[in-house]
Design a protein that fits this description.
Mean pLDDT: 73
Structural class: alpha+beta
GO biological process, one term: Ras protein signal transduction
Protein name: Guanine nucleotide exchange factor
CATH superfamily of one domain: Pleckstrin-homology domain (PH domain)/Phosphotyrosine-binding domain (PTB)
GO molecular function: guanyl-nucleotide exchange factor activity
Organism: Planoprotostelium fungivorum
Pfam family, one: RasGEF
Strand content: 5-15%
CATH class of one domain: Mainly Beta
Largest sheet: 7 strands, antiparallel
CATH architecture of one domain: Roll
Length: 571
């Protein structure tokens, strides 16, 4: 069978992913294979008789260079590597379909011609009743008349707002149309407002709402705006605390709407005040003395409580916009980034505390951190639980084989095995997610898993599409993750604050952060000078000697040396 065209295409799977396959177009069928080297046994075939080719846009598929083949009410979405390939495949398939249609029409005309030579096919000049009579005459003779397929749909411009017929939520739309839906006549879905408020900063800003205050469309319209403003102020008041200009616009609108009979919708207008809140890491009171605190004598339960108090104070201050567009990777999420930095510092503290201990105390320190980690787990502080377990399972600690030094009946061993099961990545951290779902009380989640899910949403899934459209389907997916986090932020721990112990923890974490910064400088320098002897300029020599002095001041960790063994010679 003659091969008309062949090439590499991506087909969309039922689960939503894309698979790379090798396609061959042969006469009236489209075959597909795993790759071009295995074309003897095909994976499947598409019958092109009666099919149609429909162009698709990036807005509809969230992927470039796509076209759709419709066969017997089944849709097959295919994607090409380049737009030139898409045009070539579409033209070739349309030519094949046109030839098949012409051939089928000729066969129909021959089949439905009566013995007397009278044609039963409706001619262009034939009236509709006459065409119907001829078709009925053909049915009586046992001949089924099949009219030719309709012409290909014309390419239409993008709609300014597209609504999903099943969920009622917008699929995509312009910024203005998405805003109008908040308080316009077509606002029907209550959840839409929440999704919009949690994600709008990824594609616009709050000042854009200034036109709401300047609109004058009567009492009914203003009531809808008031209802929306009330929801905004009650559910996301940190927007106004973070933006004084937005708060001024809000107050101006309230004053402007006072002359309208709102039927009891306005009493809340004076309830919103802007407290002087600084978003970022919570800090201990200045001048709190640490004193000669012995880590071995501190109560492990009290330490776990203070760890939890510290991480909760940061977690509850993370605003929704810190989760937009992977901002923590680009320095745009200061509060969320501070929580992640704390996690790294805790892990580093555990590694150094265990590795720097003398041999006869190393096992005792290892067990002590297991107990602290277990107490954090009992408090549903999953953030510290994962941070401590990362340190206990690190390669620096694992080299001492401390877990092999006790019997299986040991209570610490059993707790360690339980914590290993909790932090295991099997099934996309199924054990952790089950415990997190069951934690209906106060908890500090392990946000690195949410960060991973949000990062995956950013891959080949832009927020802003061509034509000034916003991919609101993605915004809904992001908002659902943020909404789950936000529900946990509302819950508070009833724990007492211990300033001395909190100062002790804060001092150790800051020390670990300082050590990490110095080690990064040392590693960068050693990457520039991998050998022992180098010729360098006077400035490079001075910088290298400064780094050598810093290195001699920090403690030994597995993989690092107490002194820099690079000889530097300037010329």
């Amino acid at each position: 069978m003659e091969i008309i065209k062949e090439g590499l295409l991506f087909t969309k799977l039922d689960g939503g992913g894309w698979k790379k396959l090798w396609f061959q177009l042969r006469t009236d069928r489209l075959y597909y294979f795993t790759d071009p080297e295995h074309t003897k046994n095909h994976l499947g075939v598409l019958e092109l008789n009666g099919a149609s080719i429909t162009p698709t846009s990036e807005v509809q598929t969230y992927r470039k260079h796509c076209f759709e083949i419709c066969v017997d009410d089944e849709r097959h979405l295919l994607s090409c590597l380049t737009d030139e390939d898409r045009v070539e495949w579409s033209e070739t398939l349309n030519q094949v379909l046109q030839q098949l249609n012409m051939k089928e029409t000729a066969q129909q005309q021959e089949a439905v011609t009566s013995p007397e030579g009278e044609s039963l096919v409706a001619s262009p000049s034939m009236s509709r009743p006459e065409a119907t009579k001829n078709m009925l005459r053909g049915f009586k003779r046992g001949v089924l008349f099949v009219p030719p397929p309709p012409p290909l749909p014309a390419w239409e411009p993008y709609e300014s707002l597209s609504i999903d017929s099943t969920s009622g939520e917008p699929v995509y739309g312009t910024v203005d149309r998405l805003i109008e839906r908040l308080y316009g006549s077509d606002h029907q879905v209550h959840k839409y407002t929440t999704y919009f408020l949690l994600t709008y900063r990824s594609f616009t800003n709050g000042i854009h709402y200034n036109k709401i205050a300047n609109n004058d469309k009567g009492r009914t319209y203003k009531l809808k705006i008031c209802s929306y403003m009330k929801k905004w102020a009650s559910e996301l008041r940190i927007d106004f605390e973070d933006n004084q200009q937005l708060f001024s616009i809000y107050k101006s609108f309230i004053d402007h709407a006072e002359d309208v009979d709102t039927g009891g919708a306005m009493p809340w207008r004076n309830n919103l005040t802007v407290p002087q809140t600084v978003y970022g890491r919570g800090s201990i009171e200045s001048g709190t003395p640490v004193g000669n605190v012995d880590f071995d004598t501190l109560d492990t339960m009290e330490l776990a409580k203070q760890f939890t108090m510290r991480e909760t104070s940061i977690f509850r201050q993370i605003p929704p916009w810190d989760f937009h567009e992977c901002g923590w990777l680009h320095g745009n999420s200061p509060t969320f980034s501070s929580l992640l930095d704390d996690s790294k510092a805790i892990t580093n503290w555990v590694i150094r505390d265990v590795c720097d201990s003398v041999a006869d105390k190393r096992l005792a320190r290892f067990r002590r951190w297991i107990k602290i980690c277990d107490e954090c787990f009992r408090l549903s502080n999953f953030h510290c639980t994962f941070a401590i377990m990362k340190g206990l399972q690190s390669k620096e600690v694992a080299q001492y084989k401390l877990a092999d030094n006790w019997m299986g009946a040991d209570v610490f061993f059993q707790a360690f095995e339980e914590l290993k099961s909790l932090t295991n990545s099997r099934g996309n951290f199924k054990c952790y997610r089950d415990n997190y779902t069951k934690a209906n009380v106060q908890c500090v989640p392990w946000l690195e898993l949410e960060a991973k899910a949000l990062s995956e949403l950013e891959v080949d899934n832009p927020t802003k599409l061509s034509g000034g459209l916003i991919n609101f389907t993605k915004c809904v997916a992001v908002a659902k993750i943020i909404e789950t986090i936000k529900s946990k932020q509302q819950l508070k721990y009833s724990l007492s604050y211990n300033p001395v112990m909190d100062a002790f923890i804060d001092a150790h974490l800051k020390w670990c952060e300082l050590i990490l910064q110095r080690e990064r400088k040392i590693l960068n320098f050693l990457l520039l000078f991998p050998d022992r002897h180098h010729l360098c300029s006077r400035d490079e020599y001075r910088e290298g000697m400064g780094i050598k002095q810093e290195l001699s001041m920090i403690h030994k960790v597995s993989g690092f040396q107490n002194e820099c063994r690079v000889s530097i010679i300037w010329m």
